[in-house]
Amino acid sequence: MPVSAVDTDPVNSTLTGYKELEVKRLNIMDGDDIDQRRFDTLMEIIFQQQENGHIVIDNGASSFVPLCSYLKENDALTLLRNDGHRILLHTIFTGGQAIGDTAAGIDVLATSFPETPLVIWLNRYFGDIATDGKKFEEFKIYKERHSQFHAIIEIPHRKHSTFGKDLEELYVKRGTFDSAINSSLPIMTRQRLKTFWNDVQAVIDKANLI
User: Could you give the CA distance from residue 185 to residue 195 in angstroms, rounded to a whole number?
Assistant: First the structure.
C-alpha cells in the first residue's frame, strides 16, 4: 500500500531523519511562533493522497496543542471523514516518571475528539506501566476512556543489554528495520532486530489498523 509521511514537529523533526521513508517536513513556523494557517497545507497533502493510500502525520510536543486547536476550530476531522477518510489518533503511554503526562495527553485527545478512535501504544522502556500495583487496565484513564480506544498496542519489551543496545543504535542512525536486517551488521544483531520487528508486526496486525 502507498504510504506517505509528514513531520510537523518544528523542534525535534525525528521522523524526517529517516531518509528511506522520504518524509515531507512541514514548516509551521513564522519567525518564533507557530502559524496555524500553515496546517492548511497539511490538509491539502491529505486530500491529494491516492484513493487506497495511507498517511502518517508526526506531531511533536511543541505543536500538539496548536494542531489540536486547529483541527477543532476548523472541524477538520469531520471534513476528512465526510470525504471518506478513516482517522486514527495514535498516542504513547509510557512507564516511569512520564506516566502522569502521557495519561493527560490521552485525556486531552479523548475529550477534544470524542468521535475519533484512539490507538494507545504502551512503552515500558522507561519503566513498568504500573502505579501502586495497578496495571494500565486498572488506571482511571482506562476506565474513563477505554470505549474510545480502537486498540492497545504493547511494544515488546526486551533486555537492554542485547536488544536494547541494538535498537538504540538503530534509532540513533535513523535506520529502518528493513535496511538493518538486510545489511552487513553482525549476524546476531540482525537476528535480534528481525525478531523484535516480527514481534512488533504481530501486535500491530492484531490491532486491525488497516
Answer: 15
> Which structural domain, as residue segments, surrounds residue 176?
159-199
Condensed to tens digits (0 to 9), the pLDDT of residues 100-132 reads 999 999 999 999 999 999 999 999 988 889 888
In the chain, the number of structural domains is: 2
Residues 127 and 181 placed together within one structural domain of the fold: no
* Closest among 91, 195, 205, 200 to 156, alpha carbons compared: 200
- DSSP state string for 126-144: TS-SEETTEEGGGSHHHHH
Grid cell, residue 32, equals 518564533
C-alpha–C-alpha distance, residues 177 and 171, integer Å: 10
- Please give the Cα distance from 208 to 27 (Å, whole number): 32
Which H or E run includes 199?
helix 187-206
Cross-strand partners of 93? 122
CB-based contact 74:24 (threshold 8 Å):
no
Q: What's the mean per-residue pLDDT of the chain?
A: 94
Length of the chain: 210
User: For residue 41, what pLDDT is reported?
Assistant: 96
CA 210, CA 138: separation in Å to the nearest integer?
A: 28
